[in-house]
Amino acid sequence: MDPAIALQRAERRALWCLLAALVIFVATLFMPEHFVTGWIRAAAEAAMVGGLADWFAVEALFRRIPIPGLARHTNILIRKKDALGDGLARFVREKFLDTPSVVRLIRQQNPADAVTHWLGSYENTRQLSAVLVKVASGVLDVMDERNVQAFIRRALDTMIDRLDLSQSAAAILDTLTRDGRHQALLDETLDYLVELLNEPQTREFISARIVDWLKSDHPKKEKVLPSEWIGNKGSDMISAAVTRLLAQMEADESHQLRQAFDRAVAGLIERLKHDPDFQAKLDTFKTQLKGDTALNAYVGGLWNEWRSWVKRDLARDDSLIGAKITGAAAWMGQELARSDSLRKALDAQLLDAAERMAPGFADFVTEHIRATVHGWNAEHLSQQIRLSVGQDLQYIRINGTLVGGLIGAVLYVIAQAPVLLSRGH
């Protein structure tokens, strides 16, 4: 039933009760004086008083009643709306959101056991994964690409600014050269170069370059010379010579090229650490790197590729990301179930977080309640409350009428008791 219609019916019932008391009272005024007549009149009179008093109390909540001296105490909900909001906010804060109550509630709920039990169900972990996948997909949809790109550029610039290229490179090289580690790295490089030179594709590449050189620099001679044969032989000679040199370097730890490599690395480290001009060049390189269009475009392209891949994966029924989330949630549930100490640690962390966050959370909720109630339209609020509890308030009027009549009848009997007793004697 519509609340407004139900309220109107309740108001009519309360009014009929009051009118019935009035009719009975008026009727007794024209009856012969008798104990029963007086008793009925007293009950009806008290019923009218009770009904009218409760009518005034109920109506005073919702509208102004123009009775001299009392009008300023009516229309309570509209006049006291802001005070009602302040009181409600204070009540919620003091009775529900105080730190001891929040901590006690968390301790009673035993959250670690609840989380463990919940994550123990595959259906729950699957639903959790589905929710997180939808959230992630929604976040990607609403993200502003321009803001993301700007954020990536700022993050990249900040990272480059904080990077001391000279000192960082010097520290890396220091680590690599400690205990001859750079020589071991050189040996691996030499092995790789020897293998590379011995591959047919490498020799074919060298041969082709020799032929190209003959054609471009000696075109007339190239026409009468066996270019292909010269290219193949030259490639073999170069590969053999370089391979022999690399093998000598690898076999001789005191080889002059190794020593030159040591001196070059040591000189580079020294310049990185102490050469202002070299360091200035590196700083200039950092500045150029920050403004490099190609680098920014490359990083932005990486973001776009990653975002597209994630969106495609999230849209699939067999999403890899969703499967990873499901697996991670199931693993967490298994670990919590297996480790009592882990559950205790989780409970302790939650309690500690609650103690630290409860005051701020209470302030936020309190201010939210206060601001929300202050922002409500007073007339609308009064009407909504009347529709919500008005029927019960009308039953208070009916009860006031009936209880008033009962009390009036009892008081009349008590008042007439001496007269009745004297007649009995």
UniProtKB/TrEMBL annotation:
One of its GO terms (cellular component) is plasma membrane. The chain crosses the membrane at residues 14-32, 395-415. Keywords: Membrane, Transmembrane, Transmembrane helix. This is DUF445 domain-containing protein. It comes from Pandoraea eparura.
